[in-house]
């Protein structure tokens, strides 16, 4: 990890921990979870919002006003709204994407869940997704939340990432292995 990324991660972790602890103390973790999802969607869908959080030109007060308006419009929990206000005041809004990831991971861990990133050649059906979650739960020992994506280049099979583990059963990887084995032979 590069030094700036590591610094950003550290900053995000401190703010995420503070927001998480305050929300846990006030029993509002369940209400905080949709806020994280909504904010992440807003960041993904709005170039202007990404520009605001990354802009060195906007003053602290201007960033604070934008975050306050956003918090009011999105009906964010007080813990999240106050966290965003402090981040704007300290010029730390640039770590917002990492903060949302950290908070999401902390809440999942608190609930005994783990997220599995699953790539498949075509969209998984509800039955397939449920069966995969059940199989992964037996292997990991925690409830598994599936984050499914479609990657047609896999041809068939799955690529599953849970934490630092990766299981690749895709036809693409098998063909690559076969190709490498054939190169070694001839």
Automatic annotation (TrEMBL):
Which is a Gene Ontology cellular component entry for this protein? Answer: plasma membrane
Task: Report membrane topology.
Answer: Peripheral membrane protein
Instruction: For this UniProt record, give its keywords in alphabetical order, as a comma-separated list.
Output: ATP synthesis, Cell membrane, CF(1), Hydrogen ion transport, Ion transport, Membrane, Transport
Recorded hits in InterPro entries, A to Z, give: ATP_synth_OSCP/delta_N_sf, ATPase_OSCP/d_CS, ATPase_OSCP/dsu
Give the UniProt subcellular location, in the record's own words: Cell membrane; Membrane
Pfam families in alphabetical order: OSCP
- PROSITE patterns, per the entry: ATPASE_DELTA
Chain coiled-coil ranges: none
Q: Where does it mainly reside?
A: membrane
According to the lineage, what is the superkingdom? Bacteria
State any single GO MF term.
proton-transporting ATP synthase activity, rotational mechanism
Q: Which family does it belong to?
A: Belongs to the ATPase delta chain family.
Q: What does this protein do?
A: F(1)F(0) ATP synthase produces ATP from ADP in the presence of a proton or sodium gradient. F-type ATPases consist of two structural domains, F(1) containing the extramembraneous catalytic core and F(0) containing the membrane proton channel, linked together by a central stalk and a peripheral stalk. During catalysis, ATP synthesis in the catalytic domain of F(1) is coupled via a rotary mechanism of the central stalk subunits to proton translocation. This protein is part of the stalk that links CF(0) to CF(1). It either transmits conformational changes from CF(0) to CF(1) or is implicated in proton conduction.
Protein name as annotated: ATP synthase subunit delta
Q: What is the lineage of its organism?
A: Bacteria, Pseudomonadati, Pseudomonadota, Alphaproteobacteria, Rhodobacterales
């Amino acid at each position: 990890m590069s030094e700036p990324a590591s610094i950003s991660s550290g900053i995000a972790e401190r703010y995420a921990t503070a927001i998480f602890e305050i929300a846990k103390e006030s029993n509002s973790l369940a209400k905080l979870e949709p806020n994280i999802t909504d904010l992440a969607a807003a960041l993904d869908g709005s170039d202007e919002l990404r520009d605001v959080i990354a802009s060195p030109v906007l003053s602290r007060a201007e960033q604070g006003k934008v975050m306050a308006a956003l918090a009011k419009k999105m009906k964010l929990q007080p813990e999240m709204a106050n966290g965003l206000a402090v981040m704007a005041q300290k010029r730390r809004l640039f770590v917002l994407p990492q903060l949302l990831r950290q908070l999401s991971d902390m809440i999942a861990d608190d609930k005994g869940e783990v997220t599995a990133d699953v790539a498949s050649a075509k969209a998984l059906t509800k039955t397939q997704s449920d069966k995969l979650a059940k199989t992964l739960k037996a292997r990991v020992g925690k409830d598994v939340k599936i984050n499914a994506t479609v990657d047609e280049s896999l041809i068939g099979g799955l690529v599953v990432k849970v934490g630092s583990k990766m299981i690749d059963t895709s036809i693409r990887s098998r063909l690559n292995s076969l190709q490498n084995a054939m190169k070694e032979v001839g």
